[in-house]
Amino acid sequence: MHTVVERELELNLVLSPERSIPVPARLSYRADDPYAVHIVFHVGSSHPVSWTFARELLVEGVFRPCGTGDVRVWPSKRDGRSVILMALSSPDGEALLEASSPAVSAWLERTLRVVPPGTETAALGIDEALAALLAPTRTDELRAHGSAGDPQDGDV
After folding, report:
1. Residue 129 in this model has a pLDDT that exceeds 80
2. How confident is the model at residue 120 (pLDDT cuts 50, 70, 90)?
3. DSSP helix/strand/coil, 109
4. Cα angle vertex 59, ends 55, 64, to 5°?
5. Nearest-CA neighbor of 34 among 149, 122, 131, 136?
6. Within 13 Å, how many C-alpha atoms sit on residue 102's CB side?
């Protein structure tokens, strides 16, 4: 069983510098997918919008602007509050979302306790899975000792 770290929070969809609308959202992190964070939010339709991107991008974005392309994250201030801005871009449109920096940071800290930075590969179990795939089987052992029933020279 893999650990899941979730947090419900309200994002603000920034429409202009003076106007934004609240958007319920859920941040989700799964230890069996240790490099990714998932954000699901509802923007007034019956189908939620889901985004998945690197946890490292969100961690770095708490402190400094980062990201290129579809996801960009940076810290800012709004009315004296620390916020994180996330610019999301897809063929379907673009969105600028604002989140409480303390709320996102607290959630990220929980994810970092579950899978500390630098241990993501170990959390995936790649080494163990590869070792199991490459481990000798009973048939390999029998063949090594010449008793696996392989045709010998002249046995056809």
Report:
1. no
2. confident
3. helix
4. 135
5. 122
6. 3
Instruction: Report the distance separating Cα 108 and Cα 55, nearest Å.
Output: 8
Half-sphere exposure for 107 (CA within 13 Å, toward CB): 23
Report the length, in residues, of the chain. 156
User: What domains are there in the chain, each with its CATH number?
Assistant: 4-119 (2.30.31.20)
Question: How many whole angstroms separate alpha carbon 8 and alpha carbon 27?
Answer: 6
Long-range contact list for 68-75, CB < 8 A, 24+ apart? 75/101
Residues above pLDDT 90, as percent of the chain: 62
Q: How confident is the model at residue 141 (pLDDT cuts 50, 70, 90)?
A: confident
Q: What contacts 149, CB < 8 A, 6 or more positions away?
A: 142
Planar angle of CA 6, 12, 14, nearest 5 degrees: 140
Which of helix, strand or coil describes residue 122? Answer: helix
Condensed to tens digits (0 to 9), the pLDDT of residues 12-44 reads 999 998 999 999 999 999 999 999 999 998 877
